[in-house]
Amino acid sequence: MIIISFQHSKSKRYKEVIPLLSQFEGVTIAPNEIVVQFTYTDIFERWEAFNLIFWITVDWKGTWLMWDKYKFYSHRDKVQVFYGIQLCHKKFMWHVRDLMKYLPVMAYMDETGMDTKILGLNADFLIDKYNYIRQYISEEEIVKYISRNKRDSI
Fold this sequence. Notes:
- This protein folds into two domains: about 1-75, no CATH class; about 90-154.
- It has helices spanning about 15-20, 40-45, 45-55, 75-100, 105-110, 125-135, 140-154; strands at about 1-5, 25-30, 35-40, 65, 70.
- By secondary structure, it is of the alpha+beta class.
């Protein structure tokens, strides 16, 4: 889970952030600050909103980011954590894109009940590949995937 906390701001971009927060469930608005808890699923499904919230608020006074029980206050540290998350998001999307290449063939095989080689691809191979990539869609697997790759990412 990623947490971003920022104070209410007089910035002209503050009004851009408030509507974006409605896309996420873990938002706590207090008199002095706003705290947003992002699950990895939220981040991956709503990447554009997370990206905007991060880059708009990253340099505001009192903004901090928490990841893996560590709070980061400096611009450099917050950006390094963000780039690690961004890399994991890209890797996840590459897996999804890789899966999409096989969906038309799999759909055809499902419709026809075919269990033979099509275009040199074995049906069992395609189903195994599909199941392997599908495991990254659950929140739990995303967390495991990011945890395995965090040392390479940051």
